[in-house]
Amino acid sequence: MCIISYWYSFSHKNKIIALQTDNNQTEHVPLTTKSSTSVTRSLSQFMAGAFAAQGGYYADKLYRFQSAENGELQCQALAENTKASFRWLVLGREHYFETSKDYPIASKRDLKKALQFDDNTAPFNGVTLRHIERLNEQSHRVTFWVINPKVFQVLATRPWLLLPESYVLAKNISPQASLASVARFNQTLFIAKTGLGIFSGIQSQYVNTIEQFAFATGAPLNNGDNQPIVTSKTEFVSYLQQGLTQLEFQHLAGFFLSREKTDWQQYPWKMATIVSGSFLVCYFALSSAWLVYKNHQLEQQLAQQSEQVNIALNLQKQLRQQIQWQATLAQPLQQQTPYWNAWPLVLESIHAGARITGLAYKGNAITINGITKDDSKATDILAKLSQNAMALAPSFSKPVRKHRGSEQFAISFGLQPQYQPIENPSENLHNAGNTTAAVQPSRDQNHAK
Questions:
Q1: Closest residue by Cα to residue 255 from 73, 62, 89, 84
Q2: Helices 269-334 and 429-448: crossing angle, nearest 10°?
Q3: Which stretches in the chain have pLDDT values below 70?
Q4: Beta-carbon neighbour count of residue 239 at 10 Å?
Q5: Which of 80, 68, 74 is nearest to 56 (CA)?
Q6: 3-state secondary structure of 248
Q7: Residues 186/196, Cβ–Cβ less than 8 Å
Q8: How far apart are the first and last CA of the chain?
Q9: Among candidates 165, 160, 133, which has minimal Cα distance to 241?
Q10: Separation of alpha carbons 29 and 446, rounded Å
Q11: What structural domains does the chain harbor?
Q12: pLDDT tens-digit profile of 13-60?
């Protein structure tokens, strides 16, 4: 299965689709149809513009890349003392140290382990970028670029991809031509490709011409018909763009920057301690104030509930006292016979068919004397009185006599006491209320009857 990757050249001359097969062979297919060409051109311009806007160039000052409508790359200089953020950055030659070494190690994995113990011969300590290329089956060549730490002080954030300028521009040097003189914005850069690797340097008073640079590096000045490449300042951006388009992603692994490690010795421990201490003091102060407030609030709630409980207890105490006083006042009445309750019984006797001839009481006993009327009998009157709860044990006190078709009788009975004694006046409120309710209906019922 083919892996189709979409690659747009920054140059407006080449617009192609690259098909990369499983055996790493790339076939370039030109876009011939008008519809596919327009769609591809629009998508390509969008991708190129988005990719270019994330990049920059740093030599004498910071520059931000922009993509023009025709696909050409442009550089916009930023104001001095401006810290910008870039996803990828092309770094000028004056900001890194460059060297190449050959290692007689066949395995690339073993070579990477050996590089961990390699001495750094740069004049300063900084981030090291590496590019490994195989010379033959038994050896590799490693090119080192040690970045000056001052570079990261100019940037707002560390870029993800950092590309040395000499590595990018060396991609434009063909195998036939080994030298290039590239006029940049500020100074001229000399680049040489030799059998010992890539060599580059900035024009100075000691190396002022490309001939002097070729003599210093041992690169052939004239290689047959191929002369050294010489560009002007106006061609620098396009020449840099041409080198960027020839970069291969699988060879960029050594140019990605790892996450910056924190230097704990330079960490502001004093300031961090002060800030942490201030935060803890504020936290404890606020939490203590909150606890004091909640404690005061709970005390107020308990005080209010205590007042309500005290009021309820006082009411219960007063009710018990009222019950005790009622029981005390009712004791004399318990010894008295309620003779007035005899009148309802007399009326019931009359309704039962009796003509009352006399009413007498002696002690707690009441005697009703009377004569029955019509077909009434004395036993009916006695049965009627027996059904009344106010009459206690009604009975004939004398024998019943018949006189002219009627019966003379005398019925004696006792009366229920008016008040019932309270056996336990110290019961709870509920039982006391029930006791009072039990006494009251009895009296009301008697009056009703």
A1: 89
A2: 30
A3: 1-49, 120, 175-177, 223-226, 259-264, 333-337, 417-449
A4: 18
A5: 74
A6: coil
A7: no
A8: 113
A9: 165
A10: 122
A11: 44-251 (no CATH), 340-415 (3.30.1360)
A12: 343 333 333 344 444 434 344 455 565 556 556 666 677 888 899 988
State pLDDT tens for residues 323-335. 999 888 877 766 6
**CB proximity list for 251: less than 8 A, separation 6 or greater:** 131
pTM score: 0.50
- Three-state secondary-structure class, residue 231: strand
Q: For residue 357, report the phi and psi dihedrals to the nearest 5 degrees.
A: -110, -15
Q: Is 164 helix (H, G, I), strand (E, B) or coil?
A: strand
Alpha helices in 23-164 (DSSP H): 34-53, 108-115, 150-154
Say if residue 145 is exposed, middle or buried (CB neighbours under 10 Å; 0-12, 13-18, 19+): buried
pLDDT tens per residue, range 132-188: 988 888 999 899 999 998 998 888 888 989 999 999 998 888 766 678 889 998 889
How crowded is residue 393: how many other Cβ atoms within 10 Å of its Cβ? 9
Q: To which residue do tokens 């059998």 refer?
A: 195
Distance (Å, whole) CA 99 – CA 83: 29
> Residues for the chain: how many in total?
449
Count of CA atoms in the C-beta half-sphere (13 A) of 94: 14
Strand partners, 366: 361, 413
134 in Cβ contact with 105 (< 8 Å): no
* Residue 131 token pair: 């590019």
